[in-house]
Design a protein that fits this description.
By secondary structure, the protein is an all-alpha fold. It contains 56 helices and two strands. A two-stranded antiparallel sheet has the order 1-2. Helix 24 runs antiparallel to helix 25 (427-439). The longest helix has 15 residues, at 251-265. The termini are far apart. Keywords: Repeat. This is Pentatricopeptide repeat-containing protein. Pfam families: E_motif, PPR, PPR_1, PPR_2.
Length: 982
């Protein structure tokens, strides 16, 4: 050992020689002795001292000293000299030299040297070399310890290889090696990175059952994982559990919680409280903690608050660093405030903070997103002038900007320039180019780039495959997209050779394919891939569940919806509020009202904002370091009123817009059961339901509802709410459809008394329409004449009103005035009123002229209602054969109303042949309506065709619907039917 000290003492730091590794190789060629494990010059107690002295020797680069040291140690027969040298090289960061030393000897170095070499390879991300060296070590007789397994699992974590990490973990348990807290934490981190929180929770439970106490980093890893899947409740439960076990959070723990609150929940108020509580635990916020909170406000778009925290940071004697400025500049760029971002960049330079490549890349990205590629290139040039060389991220950003702005050729030009400068394109670069070519439909070039990418040794990521699959799906090449997705055997696709290790689909890839298949209507294939996703160990995220739910709701697969819903509850994904909204809306649209309201009511308990319970929880923990778990019932009680469920009117209006009066009435009855008093229901909910009663088989409900409204009084109805113009307009529409003139007049008086309601054009049109359809044509015309500004709806309401009241000439006069005097172009509803007026007045030729004018002069395509008006016009004019031929030549499918109009006219004019033809058509369209047989029977009677009359009467008896009455009892409606006993 004295020789080692003597040699080091002779070193001269001013002397420069070749690298120490070369010197070692030179010395080893002069003296090489076989290893003798029994002899040890450097004992374990002096091992650290030997490493320190060797490091000094290596740093000196002394050729003579290195040779002397080698001779001294080899003459002393020290077999652990190689281990000392490997450890020294690894601690100095000379990994390649350490690797060369290891490969230069045939014997296995000491365990500490092996672990040091493996650890250095992991830290430098040389994963291929690590597995190669590890295999060689095993072949030399290396027996890994718990430290070795921890290093290997860390490599798997960096490679996102959860399967490999799990195999190593199980192998360690099989060999009776007890994992340490570090190993458990690494395993948890691997699973959390893939959002496999159920498995991560299982490892965490095994850890505690094995008697290994979690440390701060363990809790931080789990909290970060649950934050990624938006399970905020579990995050704060872990935080409270950490306090319960006496672990005081550090600045890293608080920063993790702030990140989760800002980025996942969006609860900046609680994030700010969390920041304030750092002082109560004696934790001094550092620049990173401030930057986390500032980043949260920037991501929320609240730049003013972010700037305020920057000033608070400066008042705390913590100078904003380049990361602080980069966060603020990025926040401004994300909002498109590029001029302010440039100004902040100038302030940054004035404060003595030098902009780095990230700063310029953020500015370039901002201009690229704005589509201002000229300015982006200008910033890149300024970057070069500042002696900051554009890196791969710079070029990748520019390439992505050109691709998104439909300039793929310019993007390829940047790619060529990048390669010429010696920069190696990465996965992001190739992915941006592939995405650009896919969006342009150039799939051949996209796959050529994929092949080039693979030949360069780069591994495509999920976004790369997502772009390719999305491009194939948009071209309609579904089978090719599925083939690419399932490519795991190296069979090749489109001339590209791929290996199974290169293509590992994740949640993003599955989501792209499932979404594409659902849009293409291939719901069963989408379901299969969804099941494969679960089978392969991937936990579907919120996006995949939402896509599948929307597809099943669209195709009315309610059993599949319920199965997905149950699966979401089991896996915890249902805790996200967005999923609840999709479920609530889907259940409503498909008539599952109870389930829809349950989703709305449970929305608050499943996605809880922790701001109301985090404060007392932390305060209790600070004072007593005691944690009392909160029960589910207590949570629901505390969070029930955080978010409000959808208003009843919104649901009712949705059903009305979908022309589904049955669901309106069912929903209304549900509201009546859930609320005991009339005043607890928004009064306009009655009007929504009343509007639905102007449908077939709903008149009884309409009378009942109208009586209920009358019973409670119009004044109470109007005084209990504060409706806006939209609500009042819908209420007037309900009155118009049901003929409730008195109620409509009361609403009109309410509008006059309420100064907050301004009668705009839309509301004025609703009033005219209500009075016209409810029989008060005089008031409607008075309102029409007093309206100074009229649109097509105003004119149409009045024209239809006159037509409904048989005032044909007034309606046609208004139509002529509308065209010639005011130059207002009529719409399809206007022509319905004109044709109705012609029909009531018997103006057949004028009606035909207007019908032709509608298509030839105004380009309006006739609808079923227009054809019905023309048939009625011809029938009223006695042109029955013309009406028949008109029906047969209609480009749309004729309905029962049209044929019944012809049948009624035939009955009036005694046209037996056409009546029989109309009756045959009606038997196919509406066989249960007995009125058609009655009309035909009356024609037979007028013609004295008694046998035919008896046959028609017998058909009436057979098809007549039995008498029926109904009564509502509790939550259901009971029906009583009169039938003839056999």
């Amino acid at each position: 050992m004295w020789k080692l000290k003597y040699v080091v003492g002779r070193l001269s730091p001013n002397r420069t020689f070749p690298t120490s590794l070369r010197l070692f190789n030179h010395a080893s060629t002069q003296q090489r002795h076989p290893p003798q494990p029994s002899s040890t010059v450097i004992s374990q107690t002096n091992f650290s001292r030997a490493i320190s002295l060797t490091k000094q020797l290596i740093l000196s680069n002394s050729h003579t000293a290195c040779s002397s040291l080698f001779h001294a140690l080899t003459h002393s027969q020290a077999p652990n000299f190689v281990s000392v040298l490997i450890v020294a090289f690894c601690e100095l960061g000379h990994v390649q030299e350490a690797l060369s030393v290891y490969r230069n000897v045939s014997s296995l170095p000491l365990l500490k040297a092996c672990n040091a070499l493996l650890h250095a390879l992991v830290n430098t991300h040389r994963f291929d070399s690590l597995w190669e060296v590890y295999g060689d070590m095993v072949s030399r007789g290396f027996s890994p310890t718990v430290v070795s397994y921890g290093i290997l699992m860390q490599c798997c974590c960096s490679q996102a290889d959860s399967v490999g990490a799990r195999k190593l973990f199980d192998e360690m348990l099989h060999r009776k090696i007890e994992p340490t807290v570090v190993v458990y934490t690494i395993m948890i981190r691997v699973l959390c990175n893939e959002s496999r929180m159920g498995d991560a929770e299982g490892v965490f439970r095994l850890m505690r059952e094995s008697g290994v106490a979690p440390n701060l980093y363990t809790y931080k890893t789990l909290m970060h994982g649950y934050g990624k899947v938006a399970n905020v409740i579990r995050v704060f439960e872990l935080y409270a559990e950490m306090l319960w076990h006496g672990l005081h959070p550090n600045v890293v723990t608080f920063t993790t919680m702030i990140d989760i609150l800002c980025k996942v929940v969006g609860d900046l108020k609680t994030a700010r409280n969390c920041f304030v509580y750092m002082a109560k635990f004696g934790v001094v916020p550092n620049a990173y903690a401030y930057n986390s909170l500032i980043d949260g406000y920037c991501k929320a778009g609240n730049l003013s608050e972010a700037m305020r925290w920057k000033l608070e940071m400066e008042r705390s004697k913590i100078s904003p660093d380049v990361f602080t400025y980069n966060i603020l500049i990025k926040g401004l760029c994300d909002l498109g405030r590029l001029e302010e971002a440039e100004g902040l960049m100038q302030k940054m330079k004035a404060a003595g903070v030098l902009a780095n490549s990230v700063t310029y890349n953020v500015m370039i990205d901002g201009y690229c997103k704005k589509g201002n590629m000229e300015k982006a290139i200008e910033v890149c040039s300024e970057m070069v002038e500042r002696k900051i060389e554009p890196n791969v991220i710079t070029y990748s950003t520019l390439i992505d900007g050109f691709c998104k702005n439909r300039s793929v050729n310019a993007a390829m030009g940047m790619y060529t320039e990048m390669v010429i400068k010696g920069l190696v394109p990465d996965v992001v670069t190739y992915t941006a180019l592939i995405d650009g070519h896919c969006k342009h439909g150039n799939m051949k070039e996209a796959f050529r780039l994929l092949k080039e990418m693979l030949d360069a040794g780069l591994t495509p990521n999920a976004i790369t495959f997502s772009c390719l699959i999305d491009g194939l799906l948009k071209e309609g090449r579904t089978s090719d997209a599925i083939k690419l997705f399932l490519e795991k055997t190296g069979a090749g696709f489109a001339g590209v050779k791929m290996h199974s290790s290169l293509y590992s689909p994740n949640n993003v890839t599955y989501a792209i394919l499932v979404q594409g298949l659902c849009k293409d209507g291939q719901i069963f294939k989408a379901t299969k891939f969804f099941a494969d996703m679960r089978h392969n160990g991937f936990q579907p995220d919120m996006l995949v569940y939402v896509i599948m739910l929307q597809a099943h709701f669209r195709y009315k697969h309610m059993l599949d919806v319920m199965m997905l819903h149950a699966d979401m509850v089991k896996t915890g994904v249902v805790q996200n509020a967005s999923v609840h909204r999709v479920l609530s809306r889907g259940y409503q649209e498909n008539g599952y009202l109870r389930s829809a309201h349950l989703c709305s009511d449970h929305l608050h308990g499943s996605f809880m904002t922790p701001s109301k319970w985090f404060t007392p929880l932390v305060q209790r923990s600070v004072n007593k370091l005691v944690y009392v778990p909160m029960s589910t019932s207590n949570r629901k009680a505390q969070f029930h009123n955080i978010l409000k469920p959808p208003k009843p009117n919104q649901t009712l209006k949705k059903y009305l817009d979908g022309n589904n009066p049955t669901k309106v009435l069912l929903h209304f009855r549900y509201l009546m059961r859930e609320r005991t008093t009339f005043n607890s229901i928004d009064s306009f909910t009655f009007l929504f339901a009343l509007k639905a009663c102007n449908k077939k088989h709903s008149s009884i409900h309409g009378k009942q509802l109208h009586g209920l409204i009358t019973k409670f009084g119009y004044k109470d109805i109007m005084d209990n709410v504060e409706p806006d113009q939209v609500t009042v307009t819908v209420a007037l529409s309900a009155c118009a459809d049901t003929g409730a003139l008195e109620l409509g007049n009361s609403i009109h008086n309410f509008i006059r008394r309420n100064g907050g309601l301004k009668i705009d054009l839309c509301l004025n049109n609703a009033l005219i329409n209500m009075y016209a359809k409810c029989g008060d044509i005089t008031t409607a015309r008075r309102l029409f004449d007093s309206t100074k500004i009229k649109d097509v709806t105003t004119w149409t309401s009045m024209i239809v009103g006159h037509a409904l009241h048989g005032q044909a000439y007034e309606a046609l006069e208004l139509f002529s005035e509308m065209n010639t005097g005011f130059n207002i172009v009529p719409n399809d509803v206007t022509f319905i009123g004109v044709l109705m007026a012609c029909s009531h007045a018997g103006l057949v030729e004028e009606g035909k002229q207007h019908f032709r004018s509608m298509t030839e002069d105004y380009g309006i395509r006739p609808r079923e209602a227009h054809f019905g008006c023309m048939v009625d016009l011809l029938c009223r004019g006695g042109c029955l054969k013309d009406a028949y031929y008109f029906i047969m030549e209609m480009p749309v499918q004729s309905n029962a109303v049209i044929w019944r109009t012809l049948l009624g006219a035939c009955s009036l004019h005694g046209e037996l042949e056409l009546a029989a033809e109309a009756r045959e058509k009606l038997l196919k369209l509406d066989p249960d309506y007995v009125g058609d047989s009655v009309a035909l029977s009356n024609i037979y009677a007028d013609k004295r065709m008694w046998n035919n009359k008896m046959i028609a009467r017998n058909q009436i008896k057979q098809s007549r619907a039995p008498g029926c009455s109904s009564i509502e009892v509790t939550s259901g409606v009971g029906e009583f039917v009169i039938v003839n006993n056999p």
